[in-house]
Fold:
Amino acid sequence: MKINIPLDSVKKQIREEFRIAPLVTPEMREAEDLWMQIWTGTPPWANDQDRTINFAKAVTGEAARLATMGVSVKLSGSARADWLQERLNEELIPFLRDMLDVGCAAGMFLLKPTPDSIGLYTPPEFTITAVDNRKRVIGVVLYDTKATPDYYYVKAEYHRYEGTHYVVSNRAFRLAKGKTAASRVNLDEVPDWVGILPDAVLDIL
Structure:
């Protein structure tokens, strides 16, 4: 479950930890926030006299419907293909229209497959750090959040290519509620993150 926490107060420390710089400008981030406010029916200009009919939601919903109409994916030929087909049938295809609806409103979205589900990430839940000459994302940080009565926790998951390797680094940060400065903590401080490797390297050749 996504938790609405002040991510911006933690992102500076995450950038310093990974020595990265976001490709998206502050102006773009403001625009993304505005788009989502409009899509959810809460634009900054709405009030008791000036109400919204939420036409933006109708537009993105129709765009998503047309784009996903009749979508199907068929994989076969191996046990892995069978497993992937099952995951797609259960976790992606039934929800693809809704995911694309949100993605149209947010301007972009990322999907992260796991053994149990396929997670949907929209700005500001990820930061793009690098693209190749074909504008394909080759570096990104995903943010997952948890909360306790006293603290917010943020897990920064940094994916990138380094030569012939695909590298994933995980770092956890703790932010006291009402504060603006976070501290680095061990991943196992959050039960759901126990066992996650701080760094993993995959050979892509």
User: Anything to note?
Assistant: Residues 87 and 114 are 9 Å apart (CA to CA). Helices lie at 8-18, 26-39, 55-68, 79-92, 96-106.
